[in-house]
């Protein structure tokens, strides 16, 4: 018979009670094109299948118990639709049917005449289904212990445009895997699954994974009040989906065991401008152990949106929030951010990296709580935590009011923490009171941040820092004060530390007890401005006292940082002592000048440096270049500090002076 759909709700209206699907048979002249394979779980183990099938062409089969039955439809020479009606007890499993793409519509579930033994893989990959118009609900009371799953029941229905399965009754016998229930429905513009009780299911991950990817405005998801009370994982719930508004508020999580929420919306793109992801009022959130990648990357063609996670009770068991908002350039506000707690948090690396439009606000709780800030002591990795945050906002992001209370005492890695971020005011007062006593890596911490301001970090008590490369590079920091509790003994590199700052450096204060015994490189440490004379002298003094490692030949450039020059002597060169600075009345090694081999002297007539290669205790001082004609020679730094420049030059370095000459 030919089936013509007149009213998609006719079964509900006429009181149809059977399970009804519409199939489309396209007769191309071959027997295979006219066949339809009905596929189920059959009668195996705990299953007791027994169904009657009306094929819709005036033929039927009764008491069918096996997992497959193939029906041959009559030749029509064209396209014909048939309504297949089923009564009895069975578990659909059309995923394994070679004719699954011939199913076009599910018209009725058979609430009164069908008991479902199983529902796993029920309609997986039924890519021909365009409509599920059934308004009744399936009877799952017969689900036994052999296959208590809903796994992939509606997975990859790529032609389905909407799905309404509100208020289905899910019995406690579904105590196993119910993942990917609605996943990969790429053409779906709306899914409603409110008030589902999956409280016995142990796995409910990826339920809405990759939905709406073929739509223009994304898929609206409404699934409020879901009970996930036994599920160990909600991972990848909406990963890679294209979405409009999402309301999955009021979910209940496990009460006595932990649950992972990794990649909840990882790679999801919000396609409706101004949409909201509503995950508010989740119950038992303190059992969440990870929120890694939860809202990571929204996609290049996404729209601005907000996230509402207000009403959470906290996240006291959560150890990981790394990549939580990474790359999400379209989230503008996270309501209820103050619901997060950090009692167990160990990793917050790149948590907000790339959230260029995100702002913090005391309104709607869109900032950190004091509980989050003060309990961060277990967090070891904060690298890139705020990198690029607010960079796309005209005036930058508001500084979180609790940032100054962050407990960073356990952090070992803070590299790139504020790199390229942009704020409404300078960060300096928010970080100067921190105590990063365990930190070893702060590479590029403020690199490219134009809203740091000058830093007085004299109260910091650091651990064994290894790398200071690019620390304030291209920032607006021109003054930095290190306190006596800074430990520089493990610092290996200071390359580009203040390179290309927005204004010339005016002041860099190293502690008078600084230990630079591990330093090997300080390439282009300062390219504009300088430390100030006394600070530079102290820096060189400490290098001379503490250096233990031979430096590789390279360049140390410290802008206009100035060394102290003192007159050494007045000398003349003769034809017989062309390479000597001669003063027959002066004993250079014994004099108050205390010139030693390998000291560096500066000739202000030739405007050049030379290293002392020999000292004649009686009359002569030998140089390694013929630089003195007559005039004054200077020891380029007082006392022991001269050894620093000697050491540099002796190892192939070039020292840049106040005028940029070497």
Give structural notes.
The chain is mainly beta and 662 residues long. It is built from six helices and 30 strands. Strands 10, 11, 12, 13, 15, 16, 18 and 19 form an eight-stranded parallel beta sheet that branches. Strands 1, 3, 4, 6, 7, 8 and 9 form a seven-stranded mixed beta sheet that branches. A hairpin with a 4-residue loop joins strand 26 (600-603) and strand 27. Helix 5 (533-546) crosses helix 6 (642-650). The longest helix has 14 residues, at 533-546. Residues 1-13, 566-593, 603-608 and 616-662 have low confidence and may be disordered.
Mean pLDDT: 85
Poorly predicted tracts of residues? 1-13, 566-593, 603-608, 616-662
Number of helices: 6
Measured between the Cα atoms of the first and last residue, the distance is 97 Å
Helix content: under 10%
How are the SSEs placed, and which strands pair?
Elements: H1 10-14, E1 19-26, H2 31-34, E2 35-39, E3 50-54, E4 60-64, E5 68-72, E6 79-90, E7 103-109, E8 114-116, E9 131-132, E10 162-164, E11 190-192, E12 219-222, E13 242-247, E14 259-260, E15 269-270, E16 275-278, E17 288-290, E18 305-308, E19 331-335, H3 370-374, H4 428-431, E20 455-457, E21 479-482, E22 507-509, H5 533-546, E23 555-556, E24 566-572, E25 580-582, E26 600-603, E27 608-615, E28 620-623, E29 630-635, H6 642-650, E30 654-655
Parallel strand pairs: 6-8, 7-9, 10-11, 11-12, 12-13, 13-15, 13-16, 14-17, 16-18, 18-19, 20-21, 21-22, 23-30
Antiparallel strand pairs: 1-6, 1-7, 2-5, 3-4, 3-6, 24-29, 25-28, 26-27, 26-29, 27-28
Helix pairs in contact: 5-6
